[in-house]
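In response to the reviewer comment on reproducibility (Comment 2.3), we provide here a single inverse folding case reported in full, input and output, so that an independent group could reproduce the run without further information from us. The structure tokens appear first.
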């Protein structure tokens, strides 16, 4: 494994955020295994996987994707897995994602692959991994953790040329783990302009990095055949999952809340949170 010591260069973020990533934004192209360090601390791992990803590919090709239009106007296709925190407006209780119910076999395969990435995480980033795992063990119920990993959740992106951004909502100062599955595609690499590095993101490669602190974007995806695809499967830990009670207590909590809401309705009282849902 080659190691490259770099320091982040200052950027005028307004020139990058919410615009498309380009290969020309970075002067160094990376298509080999590499560990990037900063002041001796490991920051980014790019590595070709030496394990079979056929089952993972089968799973991501069978699940259902939702189309979303981001505030920038970019249309993306994605599906989340693992667990969801509470959302007072839409669903005021912690739960498994819809993929777990609609595609249980595929969800299990995707979740289980997180174990393979966790091994790399622990090997190349032992201090950060231990911090990450320690936080999860202390703050988050095992009911909401992907088994044998420090992750709670993840997302599968299909053919998404994501504009420059920082991730949000995850536990701070830990890493997300991403595996890329790609066929007959030109482009679709990951640009990290602060480090002046453009990663090829070839088929069966993995990247580990702190997406909340490192600006990144996916370059345009050009398909070269009708069967072309680019999937990225990203594993992370949502900070809000620490609020989730053990599943039995979570069920009791929401039942109690629903009972109180019905009593309030019967008494003619207005529940402001329920009113927000009904608007």
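Designed residues, in position order:
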């Amino acid at each position: 494994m080659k190691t490259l010591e770099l320091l982040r260069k200052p950027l005028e973020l307004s020139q990058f955020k919410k615009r498309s990533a380009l290969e020309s934004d970075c002067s160094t192209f990376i298509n080999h295994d590499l560990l990037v360090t900063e002041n001796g601390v490991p920051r980014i791992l790019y590595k070709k996987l030496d394990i079979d990803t056929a089952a993972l590919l089968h799973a991501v090709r069978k699940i259902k994707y939702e189309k979303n239009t981001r505030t920038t106007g970019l249309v993306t296709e994605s599906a989340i897995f693992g667990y969801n925190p509470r959302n007072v407006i839409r669903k005021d209780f912690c739960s498994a994602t819809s993929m777990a119910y609609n595609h249980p076999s595929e969800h299990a395969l995707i979740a289980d692959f997180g174990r393979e990435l966790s091994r790399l995480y622990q090997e190349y980033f032992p201090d950060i991994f231990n911090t990450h795992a320690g936080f999860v063990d202390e703050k988050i119920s095992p009911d909401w953790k992907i088994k044998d990993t420090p992750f709670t959740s993840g997302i599968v992106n299909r053919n998404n040329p994501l504009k420059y951004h920082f991730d949000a909502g995850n536990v701070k100062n830990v890493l997300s783990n991403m595996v890329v599955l790609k066929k007959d595609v030109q482009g679709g690499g990951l640009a990290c302009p602060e480090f002046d590095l453009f990663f090829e993101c070839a088929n069966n490669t993995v990247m580990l990095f702190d997406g909340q602190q490192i600006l990144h974007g996916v370059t345009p995806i050009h398909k070269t055949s009708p069967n072309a695809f680019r999937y990225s499967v990203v594993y992370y830990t949502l900070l809000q999952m620490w609020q989730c009670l053990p599943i039995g207590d979570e069920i009791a909590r929401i039942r109690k809340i629903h009972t109180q809401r019905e009593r309030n309705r019967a008494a003619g009282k207005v529940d402001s949170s329920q009113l927000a849902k009904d608007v």
